[in-house]
Amino acid sequence: MSNPDLNLLLTLDVLLTEGSVARAAERLQLSPSAMSRALSRLRQVTGDPLLVRAGRGLVPTPRAQELRRQVGPLVEQALAALRPSEQIDLGQLQRTFTLRSRDGFVENFGPALIRRLRQQAPQVRVHFVPKLDRDSQPLREASIDLETAVIDSDTSPELRTRALFRDRFIGVVRSGHPLSRGPVKLEDYLAGEHILASHPGHAHGRMDEALHALGRRRQVVTLVSGFSAALALARGSDLIAMVPERHTSNLREGLHSFCLPLPLPEMTLSLLWHPRMEADPAHRWLRQCVYELCSDVAATLPTANTAD
Q: What CATH number does domain 7-82 carry, 1.10.10.10, 3.40.190.10, 3.40.50.300, 3.30.230.10?
Protein backbone atom coordinates (compact mmCIF):
# COMPACT_ATOMS: atom_id res chain seq x y z
CA MET A 1 0.00 0.00 0.00
CA SER A 2 1.39 3.40 -0.99
CA ASN A 3 1.92 6.07 1.64
CA PRO A 4 -1.03 8.50 1.96
CA ASP A 5 -0.63 12.10 0.88
CA LEU A 6 -0.13 13.94 4.19
CA ASN A 7 -1.06 17.22 2.49
CA LEU A 8 -4.61 15.93 2.67
CA LEU A 9 -4.52 16.40 6.46
CA LEU A 10 -4.40 20.18 6.07
CA THR A 11 -7.15 20.07 3.44
CA LEU A 12 -9.29 17.86 5.67
CA ASP A 13 -8.77 20.14 8.68
CA VAL A 14 -9.87 23.22 6.73
CA LEU A 15 -12.84 21.45 5.14
CA LEU A 16 -14.14 20.18 8.47
CA THR A 17 -13.56 23.55 10.13
CA GLU A 18 -15.31 25.55 7.42
CA GLY A 19 -18.01 23.00 6.55
CA SER A 20 -18.06 24.44 3.05
CA VAL A 21 -16.15 23.58 -0.13
CA ALA A 22 -16.27 27.19 -1.31
CA ARG A 23 -14.98 28.69 1.96
CA ALA A 24 -12.31 26.01 2.29
CA ALA A 25 -11.16 26.70 -1.28
CA GLU A 26 -10.94 30.42 -0.56
CA ARG A 27 -8.98 29.84 2.66
CA LEU A 28 -6.48 27.55 0.93
CA GLN A 29 -6.40 29.76 -2.19
CA LEU A 30 -7.64 26.97 -4.43
CA SER A 31 -10.39 26.87 -7.04
CA PRO A 32 -13.72 25.33 -6.00
CA SER A 33 -13.20 22.53 -8.54
CA ALA A 34 -9.76 21.73 -7.09
CA MET A 35 -11.24 21.61 -3.60
CA SER A 36 -14.04 19.34 -4.82
CA ARG A 37 -11.45 16.96 -6.26
CA ALA A 38 -9.58 17.03 -2.95
CA LEU A 39 -12.79 16.17 -1.09
CA SER A 40 -13.32 13.24 -3.45
CA ARG A 41 -9.81 11.97 -2.69
CA LEU A 42 -10.45 12.32 1.02
CA ARG A 43 -13.66 10.32 0.69
CA GLN A 44 -11.74 7.57 -1.10
CA VAL A 45 -8.94 7.53 1.48
CA THR A 46 -11.22 7.55 4.55
CA GLY A 47 -14.00 5.43 3.08
CA ASP A 48 -16.56 7.93 4.35
CA PRO A 49 -18.54 10.74 2.64
CA LEU A 50 -17.35 13.15 5.40
CA LEU A 51 -19.62 16.05 4.34
CA VAL A 52 -23.13 15.42 3.04
CA ARG A 53 -25.74 17.73 1.61
CA ALA A 54 -28.44 19.02 3.99
CA GLY A 55 -30.62 21.65 2.39
CA ARG A 56 -28.32 24.33 0.96
CA GLY A 57 -25.37 23.42 3.16
CA LEU A 58 -23.16 20.52 4.14
CA VAL A 59 -23.16 18.67 7.45
CA PRO A 60 -20.40 16.41 8.82
CA THR A 61 -20.88 12.67 9.26
CA PRO A 62 -20.09 11.04 12.62
CA ARG A 63 -16.75 9.91 11.16
CA ALA A 64 -16.00 13.51 10.12
CA GLN A 65 -16.74 14.76 13.64
CA GLU A 66 -14.36 12.16 15.06
CA LEU A 67 -11.68 13.10 12.54
CA ARG A 68 -12.01 16.80 13.35
CA ARG A 69 -11.01 16.14 16.97
CA GLN A 70 -8.01 14.11 15.80
CA VAL A 71 -6.80 16.08 12.79
CA GLY A 72 -6.84 19.59 14.29
CA PRO A 73 -4.12 18.89 16.92
CA LEU A 74 -2.04 16.97 14.34
CA VAL A 75 -2.04 19.91 11.96
CA GLU A 76 -1.25 22.38 14.76
CA GLN A 77 1.68 20.27 15.95
CA ALA A 78 3.00 19.87 12.41
CA LEU A 79 2.82 23.62 11.78
CA ALA A 80 4.50 24.31 15.12
CA ALA A 81 7.29 21.86 14.28
CA LEU A 82 7.98 23.67 11.00
CA ARG A 83 7.72 27.13 12.55
CA PRO A 84 10.94 28.77 13.74
CA SER A 85 11.21 29.28 17.48
CA GLU A 86 10.04 32.74 18.47
CA GLN A 87 11.41 35.08 21.09
CA ILE A 88 8.50 37.21 22.23
CA ASP A 89 8.85 40.79 23.37
CA LEU A 90 6.67 40.83 26.47
CA GLY A 91 6.80 44.61 26.64
CA GLN A 92 5.13 44.83 23.22
CA LEU A 93 2.87 41.78 23.47
CA GLN A 94 -0.81 42.66 22.97
CA ARG A 95 -3.11 39.78 23.75
CA THR A 96 -6.09 38.77 25.86
CA PHE A 97 -6.11 35.37 27.54
CA THR A 98 -9.16 33.70 29.04
CA LEU A 99 -8.76 31.54 32.15
CA ARG A 100 -11.64 29.45 33.50
CA SER A 101 -11.70 28.31 37.12
CA ARG A 102 -14.00 27.61 40.04
CA ASP A 103 -14.61 30.42 42.50
CA GLY A 104 -11.83 30.89 45.00
CA PHE A 105 -9.04 30.63 42.44
CA VAL A 106 -9.29 34.25 41.30
CA GLU A 107 -9.57 35.52 44.88
CA ASN A 108 -6.42 33.67 45.92
CA PHE A 109 -4.21 33.86 42.86
CA GLY A 110 -5.71 36.56 40.64
CA PRO A 111 -4.12 39.63 42.30
CA ALA A 112 -0.60 38.18 42.11
CA LEU A 113 -1.13 37.17 38.47
CA ILE A 114 -2.37 40.65 37.55
CA ARG A 115 0.66 42.22 39.22
CA ARG A 116 2.98 39.89 37.30
CA LEU A 117 1.30 40.76 34.00
CA ARG A 118 1.47 44.50 34.69
CA GLN A 119 5.18 44.24 35.44
CA GLN A 120 6.24 41.95 32.58
CA ALA A 121 3.63 42.47 29.85
CA PRO A 122 1.57 45.59 30.54
CA GLN A 123 -0.49 45.26 27.35
CA VAL A 124 -1.61 41.71 28.11
CA ARG A 125 -5.08 41.25 29.55
CA VAL A 126 -6.57 38.25 31.33
CA HIS A 127 -10.27 37.45 31.33
CA PHE A 128 -11.36 35.27 34.26
CA VAL A 129 -14.55 33.28 33.67
CA PRO A 130 -16.38 30.94 36.07
CA LYS A 131 -16.21 27.20 35.64
CA LEU A 132 -19.78 25.91 35.84
CA ASP A 133 -19.18 22.39 34.48
CA ARG A 134 -16.43 19.96 33.47
CA ASP A 135 -16.99 20.17 29.72
CA SER A 136 -13.66 20.56 27.89
CA GLN A 137 -15.29 21.78 24.69
CA PRO A 138 -14.37 25.45 25.37
CA LEU A 139 -10.68 24.48 25.31
CA ARG A 140 -11.15 22.59 22.04
CA GLU A 141 -13.02 25.52 20.49
CA ALA A 142 -10.40 28.02 21.76
CA SER A 143 -13.05 30.08 23.57
CA ILE A 144 -10.81 29.76 26.64
CA ASP A 145 -7.02 29.46 26.82
CA LEU A 146 -6.46 27.86 30.21
CA GLU A 147 -8.50 26.03 32.81
CA THR A 148 -7.92 24.74 36.32
CA ALA A 149 -9.31 21.35 37.33
CA VAL A 150 -8.79 18.22 39.36
CA ILE A 151 -7.86 15.51 36.85
CA ASP A 152 -10.14 12.47 36.91
CA SER A 153 -11.68 9.92 34.56
CA ASP A 154 -13.91 12.61 32.99
CA THR A 155 -10.92 14.71 31.88
CA SER A 156 -10.30 14.54 28.15
CA PRO A 157 -7.06 12.61 27.46
CA GLU A 158 -6.18 14.93 24.57
CA LEU A 159 -5.61 17.91 26.90
CA ARG A 160 -2.21 18.94 28.21
CA THR A 161 -1.92 19.25 31.99
CA ARG A 162 0.48 20.49 34.66
CA ALA A 163 0.01 20.03 38.39
CA LEU A 164 -0.22 23.30 40.36
CA PHE A 165 -0.64 22.27 44.01
CA ARG A 166 -2.13 19.66 46.29
CA ASP A 167 -5.23 20.50 48.30
CA ARG A 168 -7.61 18.87 50.78
CA PHE A 169 -11.20 19.36 51.85
CA ILE A 170 -11.95 20.92 55.23
CA GLY A 171 -15.11 21.79 57.16
CA VAL A 172 -16.16 25.41 57.66
CA VAL A 173 -18.70 26.94 60.04
CA ARG A 174 -19.50 30.42 61.32
CA SER A 175 -17.54 31.82 64.23
CA GLY A 176 -19.18 30.68 67.47
CA HIS A 177 -20.77 27.60 65.91
CA PRO A 178 -20.89 24.57 68.28
CA LEU A 179 -18.39 22.78 66.02
CA SER A 180 -15.89 25.63 66.52
CA ARG A 181 -15.26 24.78 70.18
CA GLY A 182 -12.85 21.89 69.77
CA PRO A 183 -11.94 18.84 67.68
CA VAL A 184 -14.92 17.71 65.63
CA LYS A 185 -16.10 14.13 66.14
CA LEU A 186 -17.93 12.24 63.42
CA GLU A 187 -21.16 11.97 65.41
CA ASP A 188 -21.24 15.73 66.00
CA TYR A 189 -20.48 16.37 62.34
CA LEU A 190 -23.29 14.11 61.17
CA ALA A 191 -25.74 15.67 63.64
CA GLY A 192 -25.50 19.00 61.78
CA GLU A 193 -27.05 20.15 58.51
CA HIS A 194 -24.81 20.46 55.49
CA ILE A 195 -24.26 22.42 52.28
CA LEU A 196 -23.14 20.61 49.14
CA ALA A 197 -21.12 22.64 46.62
CA SER A 198 -21.34 20.72 43.37
CA HIS A 199 -21.62 21.03 39.62
CA PRO A 200 -25.21 20.86 38.32
CA GLY A 201 -26.50 17.31 38.10
CA HIS A 202 -24.37 15.98 40.98
CA ALA A 203 -26.46 15.40 44.10
CA HIS A 204 -23.65 13.73 46.08
CA GLY A 205 -20.11 14.75 46.91
CA ARG A 206 -16.91 13.03 47.99
CA MET A 207 -17.93 13.05 51.64
CA ASP A 208 -21.24 11.37 50.83
CA GLU A 209 -19.42 8.61 48.95
CA ALA A 210 -17.01 8.08 51.86
CA LEU A 211 -19.87 7.96 54.36
CA HIS A 212 -21.85 5.54 52.19
CA ALA A 213 -18.92 3.10 52.33
CA LEU A 214 -19.31 3.15 56.14
CA GLY A 215 -23.08 2.80 56.02
CA ARG A 216 -23.53 6.39 57.23
CA ARG A 217 -24.97 9.53 55.70
CA ARG A 218 -25.11 13.26 56.37
CA GLN A 219 -28.10 15.55 56.03
CA VAL A 220 -27.58 17.81 53.01
CA VAL A 221 -30.23 20.52 53.14
CA THR A 222 -29.10 22.73 50.27
CA LEU A 223 -27.04 22.51 47.08
CA VAL A 224 -25.02 25.36 45.57
CA SER A 225 -22.87 25.60 42.46
CA GLY A 226 -19.80 27.21 44.01
CA PHE A 227 -17.65 27.52 47.10
CA SER A 228 -18.39 31.22 47.56
CA ALA A 229 -22.10 30.51 47.92
CA ALA A 230 -21.43 27.64 50.33
CA LEU A 231 -19.27 29.85 52.52
CA ALA A 232 -21.79 32.69 52.42
CA LEU A 233 -24.51 30.34 53.67
CA ALA A 234 -22.25 28.99 56.39
CA ARG A 235 -21.36 32.53 57.46
CA GLY A 236 -25.00 33.46 58.03
CA SER A 237 -26.40 30.22 59.45
CA ASP A 238 -25.58 27.04 61.40
CA LEU A 239 -25.05 25.07 58.17
CA ILE A 240 -21.76 23.26 57.62
CA ALA A 241 -19.75 23.80 54.44
CA MET A 242 -17.01 21.61 52.98
CA VAL A 243 -14.50 23.34 50.71
CA PRO A 244 -10.91 22.86 49.45
CA GLU A 245 -8.53 24.50 51.93
CA ARG A 246 -5.97 26.24 49.73
CA HIS A 247 -8.39 27.07 46.95
CA THR A 248 -10.64 29.08 49.28
CA SER A 249 -8.16 30.59 51.73
CA ASN A 250 -9.10 34.24 51.10
CA LEU A 251 -12.82 33.45 51.06
CA ARG A 252 -12.84 32.03 54.60
CA GLU A 253 -11.92 35.20 56.50
CA GLY A 254 -13.82 35.37 59.78
CA LEU A 255 -15.02 31.76 59.55
CA HIS A 256 -13.88 28.74 61.56
CA SER A 257 -12.17 25.96 59.64
CA PHE A 258 -11.65 22.44 60.96
CA CYS A 259 -10.26 19.09 59.89
CA LEU A 260 -12.95 16.72 58.72
CA PRO A 261 -13.67 13.84 61.13
CA LEU A 262 -13.58 11.52 58.13
CA PRO A 263 -10.51 12.65 56.13
CA LEU A 264 -10.81 12.49 52.36
CA PRO A 265 -7.93 11.79 49.95
CA GLU A 266 -5.96 14.85 48.92
CA MET A 267 -6.43 16.14 45.41
CA THR A 268 -4.18 17.91 42.93
CA LEU A 269 -5.33 21.04 41.17
CA SER A 270 -3.90 21.17 37.67
CA LEU A 271 -3.66 23.61 34.79
CA LEU A 272 -5.20 22.41 31.50
CA TRP A 273 -4.82 23.61 27.92
CA HIS A 274 -5.39 22.34 24.41
CA PRO A 275 -2.47 20.83 22.44
CA ARG A 276 -2.85 23.51 19.76
CA MET A 277 -1.41 26.01 22.26
CA GLU A 278 1.50 23.83 23.39
CA ALA A 279 4.18 25.58 21.33
CA ASP A 280 2.75 29.10 21.41
CA PRO A 281 5.44 31.25 23.13
CA ALA A 282 3.03 33.71 24.76
CA HIS A 283 0.77 30.95 25.99
CA ARG A 284 3.77 29.05 27.32
CA TRP A 285 4.91 32.17 29.21
CA LEU A 286 1.46 32.62 30.78
CA ARG A 287 1.34 28.96 31.83
CA GLN A 288 4.68 29.37 33.59
CA CYS A 289 3.45 32.52 35.35
CA VAL A 290 0.37 30.72 36.70
CA TYR A 291 2.45 27.74 37.80
CA GLU A 292 5.01 29.84 39.66
CA LEU A 293 2.43 32.00 41.40
CA CYS A 294 0.28 29.08 42.51
CA SER A 295 3.30 27.24 43.86
CA ASP A 296 4.50 30.31 45.80
CA VAL A 297 1.09 31.07 47.32
CA ALA A 298 0.39 27.44 48.15
CA ALA A 299 3.54 27.25 50.26
CA THR A 300 2.31 30.00 52.60
CA LEU A 301 -1.36 29.07 53.12
CA PRO A 302 -2.69 28.38 56.64
CA THR A 303 -3.89 25.02 57.92
CA ALA A 304 -7.34 24.07 59.20
CA ASN A 305 -8.56 24.32 62.79
CA THR A 306 -8.24 28.10 62.63
CA ALA A 307 -10.56 31.06 62.47
CA ASP A 308 -9.27 33.12 59.54
A: 1.10.10.10
